[in-house]
Amino acid sequence: MAVTSLAISIVSYDTWLYFIYLTHWSYILIVLQSLLGSYLITARFLQQDSYDRESIQLSELEWGYGVLFTMALAQAPGISLLYWFLEDRPVEITWVSHMEHTFNSVVMLIEFLLNGAPLQASYFYWTFLFNGVYIAFSVVYHWMGGINMNGQAYIYRLLDWHHVNTALIMCCMALSMFLVLHFTAAFLSKVKFWLCNKLVPKRLLTLPNKVTLV
């Protein structure tokens, strides 16, 4: 579903400028974690008879999925909040806009509720790094004379580096918001597992061990 939505989103823009927006960076992140998660689930299912349940270890792919999943959980609602409350929106809100700025959060909410992967609060620096790289990209893009889809000399109105002070304030606010969302998601993850331990029979909570992935 997420892959189909990404394909529709890219085709609807029909230009390389699609890739200059943080919305679309985040959407690609969501799709990547979804694809990797699907692969890991399939691999575990196919190799379930070979589990060693004595200890729980993570493969490099599973660790990578945890990082992507953690970042996506902060990015999705963050993008929705920025779009619907701060950024200038077109007069006519299309279904593509809803797909990119509402559906993304719905997808991650469903994944959060169904996913058994614990969130690491200590992974906050990945969220910071992801958005920090985008900020650096926006500065370089501005310096090179880049324009947005409407031909304006900035990517987002609130990230217009012609007005450095405003752009810096916006960056600080956005980074703070993404970090708050990250720690909120990590806290809610602990609450979710606590409720599972209280309400779900322990025999159903047995976790498998590392799977050799090929």
From TrEMBL:
<feature type="transmembrane region" description="Helical">
    <location>
        <begin position="164"/>
        <end position="188"/>
    </location>
</feature>
<keyword id="KW-0812">Transmembrane</keyword>
<dbReference type="GO" id="GO:0016020">
    <property type="term" value="C:membrane"/>
</dbReference>
<feature type="transmembrane region" description="Helical">
    <location>
        <begin position="63"/>
        <end position="86"/>
    </location>
</feature>
<keyword id="KW-1133">Transmembrane helix</keyword>
<dbReference type="InterPro" id="IPR049352">
    <property type="entry name" value="Rost"/>
</dbReference>
<dbReference type="Pfam" id="PF21534">
    <property type="entry name" value="Rost"/>
</dbReference>
<protein>
    <submittedName>
        <fullName>Protein rolling stone</fullName>
    </submittedName>
</protein>
<feature type="transmembrane region" description="Helical">
    <location>
        <begin position="123"/>
        <end position="144"/>
    </location>
</feature>
<feature type="transmembrane region" description="Helical">
    <location>
        <begin position="16"/>
        <end position="42"/>
    </location>
</feature>
<keyword id="KW-0472">Membrane</keyword>
